[in-house]
Amino acid sequence: MIEITNLVKAYDGIKGVDGLSLRVEPGQILGLVGPNGAGKTTTLRCLAGIIPATSGRITIAGFDLRHRPTEARQCLAFVPDEPYLFDHLTVRDHLTLFARLYRVDDGQAHADTLLRDAALTGRELAFPTELSRGMKQKLVVACALLHRPRVLVLDEPLTGLDPAAMRQMKRTVRQTADNGAAIIISSHMLHLVEEVCDRVLIVNQGRTVLEGTLTEIRAELPDVDADADLETLFLRATGADGGS
Amino acid sequence: MSPLLYLAWRSLRGRVVGWLRLMKQPRYLVGTLAGATWVGLFALRPMLQINRDAALYLVEDVSEWAPLLEFSSALLLLIFVSLWWLWPYGKALVELTETELHLLLPAPLRRRHIIQYAVLRSQWGVLFGAAIVAFFSSGGRLSVFAWRLLTTWLLLTLWNLHARGRGLWMAQLSELPAARAWRRRVLVVGTASLVLMMVAPAIAALVASVPDIQGDVSTTLQGPLSPDWFREHHPALSVLVLPFRWLSRVVLGGLDMELTVVERLGLLVWPALLVFAHNEWVVRSQASFEDASLARSRRLAASQEAGARFLKLKQSQRRAAPFRLRPQGRPELGILWKNLMLAHRTPLTTIGASALLILTAATAAVTWVSLPIWLIGILVVGALMVLVMTPLTAGHQWRNDLRTDLLRAELIRTWPVAGWRLFGAEVAGPAIIASLYATLATGVLLIAGVATRHLGVDDVMLVSDTATALGTTPLGVLAAALLTLIPLVATVATLSATLQNLVALVWPSWVQLGRRRAGSAAHIGQGLITSLGLMVAMTIGLLPGVIVSGTWLLVQIQVLNVALGAWQLPLLGLLTAAPLAAIIAVLIRFGGFLWDRLDPSAELLNTAIPGR
User: Fold this and answer.
1) Sign of torsion, CA B434 B436 B440 B443?
2) What is the DSSP letter of B471?
3) For residue B487, which of B389, B571, B581, B574 has the smallest C-alpha distance?
């Protein structure tokens, strides 16, 4: 479970995230959407423990990130928007390293399954520079899923993936949620969010604008069609549709 | 304002503003002040004093030698330039970043303006180099400094432009029709060869006259070493050297205190004209520089990463690792495993076994075969240098630690490892490698010690008396001394790596992250600050151990009257290293504390901070 309460992240007094709160239950997928500079990545980075929050409380699988960071991180996997990998480690090395970092007893066997799912079988001895961007992204996801995280945070997960890989990624995310993980996906690909996520959180200027299922959000907004898609709702909620 | 001039101005302004913004953070301000104080008090002041004395000596004594210096430096320059043009390779280097290349080349800008922009950009490096030369050759006098700065800048700029011009010219040859390119090349090679053929007899005559030089220097200067002698015997060469003499006169003219301001300025006319002409030659070049520049910018970007060199590894090598990493056990060992692989993939057991085998074989060999004393001397000096320098510079030499990992802060910050454990694991990489080198050096010292037995000169290692005092053989003393050194060098190496990593955590913006070591002023300053920290920490760390060990020795030998045994030396080594190890432990905890509280937003993640 993920719980963020009144999260604030300020840079030199300027708030990038301003009192954001959210809650994601096990098995649930939350879509985090917002315009550029809305504070999505900052929120995810605070959640992953990459940058410290100025104030507020973050709980991951019951562990307070501030007071029990190691336990919280043990339950978490973060997939950043850029596939950060080590240039001197092969695909297999990455999985070996992550198995040790997260103490995955069946690391070898599980890594083989993940490599097969990611269509990376046969590329075990390749270095990241020998992989396409999509393959790197798949490897990052494989590393993230190796320890069967209870909380999964994905920042723009479909960037650089081909259609088949996109479908596989969506399937993997859904499967991970079905296995009981709480998941947050941040993306500008609203069709993905609409297709995969159970709930949506629209942020703007570091604050929550709307949160709920699509039906709930439609109900919150006046003058929208009953079958309005997420793009319409998003533009209306953030005022980016020019007030039409 | 021209868009490129505007870009250059804004880039400079951006750098200054960025630097000032860093100063708003107390840790950067304190670092700058500490660094400036350290550099001023301990590095520049003594050097300034030495240079002042040297400069005064030079000014007083140079007048007699000035014609010779002027002529010989001009001759050397002529030879060098001729040889350089004979060299058949050259690249059309117009140093632009990948971003600049992608943004500027498609823009509606004139080609010569883009090249001029690149030339202008390179001026920061030229100016910095000129300022350094001027500082160390001015003897602390402002007027001399100003003159030196001006002349050095002119000459370095000329050199810079000449190198660029030559590179572009060479690149253009490959774009010309073969026959035309060949004609041009023949012309240049022919001219350069002709010059060298003219120079050769003059040099030969000069060399032949050297044995005749004796007695009064002034007489010699009037004779075969004088420019007049060259003018008389090699008139064509004298004319050829003349433009180069006008250049060398610019440098030497500054030493002549009798020159008026107008005369001094007159000296600058020729180099200034040359700079102007060279600049026109470069910016008007029609050579294609785009591909070479792009390749260079990509190579530079890639040099920060380790990727390229690993691609050459064979499949079997890619399977190798320093040690087998199982899923169970402390996670931080995984970080060490990863970092050691950045240095080398050879298994540690293979390295250890090979080293042991080679050292044993070498020891056995020197037991039977006598080595010449000079070879033993080289072995001893080389091994001692490695033994002393490697631990001290461990943090400078190897960067398979946090400095490489900070580039992936977004990844490693999420790892479930306590801050101090992660920091300790990062530090261990360079420390282990340095310790391995130092251990290897101790092995070489042992071999050298064994080798001296044949010579019957145990005193070469200065151990005979000590051996007698300790009641053992010289080899026994050596072995004990080396066992004493190993914990000491290991702790010093760890301290060096710890301090470098702490600097990276406290001042990430000042540290060149990645594998590449940079030589900019900021990085030199950072190196100096780290060296200061290392010295202070080592003094604090070693002092308690030395006091404890000294007291022990005093009590045992003077009070209890018990002779010291060779077996005690390693124990004393451990005793001396223990406080240093305690300091390292504290520093690693501190590093972990900093890591846990690190906010990499602005300095490492390049977060788009709202309002900026």
Assistant:
1) positive
2) T
3) B574
| A residues 77-96 lying closer than 8 A (beta carbon) to B | 77-78, 80, 82, 84-90, 93, 96
Evaluate whether A169 touches A161 at the Cβ level (below 8 Å). Answer: yes
Query: Does residue B301 register a pLDDT over 70?
Result: no
Kind and range of the H or E run holding B423: helix B419-455
Contact A127 B417 (CB under 8 A): no
Pairwise CA distance, residues B448 & B376, whole Å: 6
At a CB cut-off of 8 Å and minimum separation 6, what does B507 contact?
B27, B28, B31, B526
- State the smallest CA–CA distance between residue B431 and chain A in angstroms: 20
Please say whether the structural domain A1-75+149-161+173-244 has been given the CATH code 3.40.50.720.
no
> Is beta strand A76-79 parallel, antiparallel or unpaired with respect to A63-64?
unpaired
SS3 of residue A207 by DSSP: strand
Q: DSSP secondary structure string, B518-563?
A: --SHHHHHHHHHHHHHHHHHHHHHHHHHHHHHHHHHHIIIIIS--P
More confident residue, B91 or B386: B386
Distance, CA of B287 to CA of B91 (rounded, Å): 10
Which among B327, B414, B609 is the nearest to A103, CB-wise? B327
Rg, C-alpha atoms of chain B: 30
Per residue in B240-264, pLDDT tens? 888 998 888 887 765 555 677 788 7
Mean pLDDT of chain B: 81
Which pLDDT value is given to residue B611? 36
Q: Count of CB atoms within 10 A of residue B324's CB? A: 9
Q: Locate the domains of chain A by residue range.
A: 1-75+149-161+173-244, 85-148
Residue pLDDT, tens place only, B472-489: 777 777 778 878 888 888
Amino acid in the structure at residue B479: A
8 Å CB contact between B236 and B78: no
- Taking CA atoms, what residue in A is nearest to B343? A88
What are the structure tokens assigned to A235, written together? 């533009």
pTM value is 0.77
Look at A50 and B333 and tell me if their CB atoms are within 8 Å: no
Phi-psi region of A89 (alpha: psi -120 to 50; beta: other; left: phi over 0): beta
Q: Does A122 touch chain B (CB under 8 A)?
A: no
Fill in the DSSP letter of residue B43.
Answer: I
Q: Quote the CA–CA distance of B578 and B542 in Å, as a whole number.
A: 9
User: Using CB atoms, which residue from B305, B341, B418 is nearest to A70?
Assistant: B418
Q: Do the Cβ atoms of A144 and A172 come closer than 8 Å?
A: no
